[in-house]
Design goal:
Layout (H helix, E strand, L loop, with lengths): L2 H30 L21 H15 L12 H4 L7 E6 L4 E5 L5 E2 L3 H14 L1 H8 L11 H6 L10 H10 L5 H16 L4 E2 L1 H8 L3 H12 L7 H12 L1 E3 L1 H12 L17 H11 L5 H7 L4 E3 L4 E6 L3 E6 L10 H14 L8
Antiparallel strand pairs: 1-2, 1-8, 3-5, 4-5, 6-7, 7-8
This protein binds 6-diazenyl-5-OXO-L-norleucine (DON).
Length: about 350
């Protein structure tokens, strides 16, 4: 056996020992604590395996920010008129680790509309409330290979929602949240998204007004879904609550904490609240991997190798399971509606950290 092999094995044993110690300490602390609201399991042991030292994570965030801050590619989305008015030069990069440490650069305090990044957490809410099978059977989990608002995809897939991360599937997810009326549906969604962020989130009224006045296409698709029994509440209610959900304001740090909750097996690393059964998290991440970038999901997997979700407001959140989340915000988007600079920053960080989930080295 070579010296290098012996060192590798020693490192592996050390990591296994630390994982065991963490699991033991978690068991001791959780067994003394109050019972959690949902069935829980300890966060994955890998949560302790920091990918790099603190200084390294701050350095990689700073260098991603410096490298791309002057990149002016892309253009703000304007089919929702408000989005065209957001300053295009805003740029933020944040890492939040699975144990709650925050590393950031740029405009991290700016509150932008979460848009399609919200779709992930409503999918999680439906899984948590009704089980992952509900998403599989009633919404679907196949990538469409089409744009986020594709009417063609609806036709191609037999008027089904197809997956929770395109607009049709997101409205179907909204319709599956158990609620007696529109207000309850909205309040439940807002509360759940806020718990992922670890802070009370608020609607950005101007975004909502702007989007609600122009969301004819979503209203049309919701009616087709409902007509085919693939939407489970009134179609205008589903569209309106979905539009509100997309108009929730988040800053880049809050978005990163939302992702870090998934990285941490469903437990918010700041508030320590369990929001999702740990066994459901891989299913959510699988959908993000295959459909989070719509018709660019293949290229994103190829280049970054991380489950992620984009929003047309300029936010992207990516998850390194068991380790951390990376969020970035920059309003100019490409043809597919995905932020150009946020993609560059996250891809760069993923490569620097060797974080692709497909990299077994
Ligand atoms: O329904 C819409 O068109 C928007 N509220 C959300 C679209 C979106 O974020 C696409 N993602 N990049």
């Amino acid at each position: 056996m070579t010296k290098a092999m012996k060192t590798n094995i020693a490192q592996l044993r050390l990591r296994q020992l630390s994982a065991l110690l963490l699991a033991t300490s978690l068991f001791v602390s959780t067994s003394c604590a109050q019972a959690p609201a949902v069935a829980s399991a300890p966060p994955p042991a890998t949560a302790i395996a920091a990918p790099a030292a603190t200084a390294d994570l701050q350095r990689v965030v700073d260098s991603a920010y410096a490298k791309f801050k002057d990149d002016k590619s892309g253009k703000n989305a304007d089919y929702i008129p408000y989005l065209a008015s957001v300053p295009s030069d805003l740029f933020a990069v944040v890492i939040v680790t699975a144990d709650g440490k925050v590393y950031s650069a740029g405009d991290i305090g700016y509150s932008f509309s979460i848009q399609s990044c919200s779709k992930v957490f409503t999918m999680c809410q439906v899984m948590q409330e009704s089980g992952p099978e509900t998403i599989l059977k009633k919404v679907g989990v196949e990538p469409t290979g089409q744009a986020f608002n594709s009417v063609t995809a609806l036709g191609m897939f037999g008027n089904k929602a197809v997956n929770p991360l395109v607009n049709c599937g997101a409205m179907a997810s909204v319709s599956l949240v158990k609620a007696k009326n529109a207000e309850e549906r909205w309040q439940k969604i807002l509360a759940y998204q806020s718990k992922f962020a670890g802070e009370q989130l608020k609607l950005i009224d101007d975004v909502y007004v702007s989007e609600a006045a122009t969301n004819w296409r979503n209203r049309g698709m919701a009616h087709i879904l409902y007509n085919n029994e693939n939407l489970f509440c009134d179609p205008l209610e589903a569209t309106d609550v979905y539009t509100k959900q997309c108009s929730i304001g988040v800053n880049a740090k809050q978005l990163a904490v939302m992702g870090a909750t998934l990285a941490n097996g469903g437990v918010n690393p700041i508030t320590k609240e369990r929001l999702m059964n740990s066994s459901y998290v891989p299913r959510a991440l699988a959908v993000m991997m295959t459909a989070g970038f719509y018709d660019e999901s293949g290229a994103w997997s190829f280049n970054a190798g991380l489950p992620a979700k984009t929003g047309v407001g300029g936010g992207i959140v990516a998850v390194v399971p068991g380790r951390l989340a990376i969020a970035s915000f920059s309003p100019p988007v490409n043809e597919a509606g995905n932020s150009v600079r946020a993609q560059l920053a996250i891809k760069y960080i993923a490569a620097q950290l060797g974080a692709s989930i497909f990299d077994g080295r």
